[in-house]
Design goal:
CATH superfamily of the largest domain: Adenylosuccinate Synthetase, subunit A, domain 3
Distance between the termini: 7 Å
Bound molecules: guanosine-5'-diphosphate, 6-O-phosphoryl inosine monophosphate, magnesium ion
Strand order of the largest sheet: 9-7-5-2-10-1-11-15-19-20
Largest sheet: 10 strands, mixed
Number of helices: 13
Helix content: 25-40%
Number of domains: 2
Shape: globular
Number of strands: 20
Radius of gyration: 22 Å
Length: about 425
């Protein structure tokens, strides 16, 4: 089995971390290919609960080589903090490999992230404030600073100088902030050079060689399909490609190496930050989903917006990513509803849309068309096979599967590793 991509099918926080951890024991490499410490993955192992942001979730599995790919943006201070935090808890992090081509998040980009949001006012994106967007913008504008620049002080200084020439104009003239000096930024970045050096490699080569040896590479996406900068609800997206295509560019492996695409979909939907969300609930049902599902952000602690499952979005995710398997998570959270609505289409300005409408304006106007499925009252958290599920829960899963475009190969019934129904082997 060559490479497997694992991505989010909705707006993030679907339970990608748990799914990665579940597969972890049977893979050789886990690669984070996009995003940075805007991600928040909670992994529960026995009594231990880990919150990962920048590191791939595979770091928790002994024997796995975790990789931070070229498509990631790295805040070095956060990287070391996370590594130290895990080391204190006895996790062996010594195998971590970091791409020399990954970009660094200088402190001025964290500042930019926050001040641009403030200036956007009502039109803000609701970012995580970690400097993600400005750092990807710098990458595309070719004024970014890469990990490898840490090892050539002269070049680093030149690049910082070049970047600040533009940035300081904005800082001072538009945002009324203090200009950053070349010295302070260079020193801040250089402070991480020594600790970074032994971690750094040509990760595309490392992964290419692993694939040639027949080892299993799991490509773990941060964020999700509808937060993808090309295919998501732009501009209310993150600034990277979180879809399966991004796994190739962000890890430096070819599309032909990917044999399976696993999409994680929650049994309902959540979203953090601004942007359209047709099935969003503003009533007691939404509050109930939030409370029962503990839907508060792992990264920023913000309450997540909650809504019902959306089939057009699921089919869209299937098509964009070439999903071969869905993992349906948090089915347990839906226990106890008399009936469970599922969005099967949208009505947009009086017209029915079975697929996502072409324009963002239409998507903002989309009103969900619901079908109502009978609920179930029985606790499902102990279910380990499909046969253990009560009739209503089983019917819900079957209903979604028939319409999602790919089989539901695993079902989450609780946060712990074991609280999973495996229907099809995801690594066969
Ligand atoms: P990620 O960003 O996609 O990795 O997801 P998050 O970790 O941000 O959010 C998912 C949350 O749901 C975490 O707190 C998980 O521990 C939890 N979780 C994952 N799968 C399940 C499940 O099947 N049932 C329940 N109740 N919780 C789950
Ligand atoms: P995981 O990997 C949910 C959202 C932010 C904001 C938008 C842009 O845990 O699923 P950014 O800081 O990336 O520029 O913010 O994207 N966002 C996420 N929402 N889960 C995430 O990651 C997210 N990462 C970014 O809330 O709306
Ligand atoms: Mg998350």
């Amino acid at each position: 089995m060559p490479a497997i991509a694992l991505i989010g099918a909705q707006w993030g926080d679907e339970g990608k971390g748990k799914a990665t951890d579940l597969l972890g024991r049977r893979v050789d490499y886990v690669v984070k290919f996009n995003g940075g410490n805007n991600a928040g993955h909670t992994v529960v192992i026995g009594d231990e609960k880990y919150a990962l942001h920048l590191l791939p979730s595979g770091i928790l599995t002994p024997g796995v080589t975790p990789v931070i790919g070229n498509g990631v943006v790295i805040d070095p201070a956060v990287l070391f903090q996370e590594l130290d935090g895990l080391a204190e808890r006895g996790v062996d992090t010594s195998r971590l490999v970091v791409s020399a081509n990954a970009h660094l998040i200088p402190s001025y980009n964290r500042t930019f992230d926050k001040v641009t949001e403030r200036f956007l006012g009502k039109r803000k994106i609701g970012t995580t404030g970690r400097g993600i967007g400005p750092t990807y913008a710098d990458k595309m504008s070719r004024v970014g600073i890469r990990v490898q620049d840490l090892f050539d002080e002269k070049i680093l200084r030149q690049k910082v100088e070049g970047a600040l020439e533009q940035k300081n104009q904005l800082f001072v003239k538009v945002y009324n902030r203090r200009a950053a000096t070349v010295d302070e930024v260079t020193d801040e970045l250089l402070a991480s050079a020594e600790r970074m050096r032994p971690l750094v490699a040509d990760t595309s080569l490392v992964l290419g060689q692993a694939l040639e040896r027949g080892e299993v590479v799991l490509l773990e996406g941060g964020q999700a399909t509808l937060l993808d900068v090309d295919h998501g609800t732009y501009p209310f997206v993150t600034s990277s490609n979180a879809t399966a295509g991004g796994a190739c560019t962000g890890a430096g492996i070819p599309p032909t190496a990917i044999s399976r695409v696993i999409a994680i979909a929650k049994a309902y939907i959540t979203r953090v930050g601004e942007g359209p969300f047709p099935t969003e609930l503003f009533d007691a049902d939404g509050e109930r989903l939030r409370q029962v599902g503990h839907e508060f952000g792992t990264t920023t602690g913000r309450p997540r917006r909650c809504g019902w499952f959306d089939l057009p979005i699921t089919r869209y995710a299937q098509r964009i990513n070439g999903v071969t398997d869905f993992v349906l998570t948090k089915l347990d959270v839906l226990t106890g509803w008399e009936r469970v609505p599922v969005c099967v289409a949208y009505e947009v300005d009086g017209e029915r849309h079975d697929e996502l409408p072409m324009t963002q304006t239409e998507f903002h106007h989309a009103v969900p068309v619901y079908e109502f499925l009978p609920g179930w009252r029985e606790d499902v958290s102990g279910a380990r096979t499909l046969a253990d599920l009560p009739r209503g829960a089983r019917a819900y899963v079957d209903y979604l599967q028939e319409r999602a475009g790919a089989p539901i190969s695993a079902i989450g019934v609780g946060p712990e590793r074991e609280q999973t129904i495996v229907v099809n082997d995801l690594l066969s």
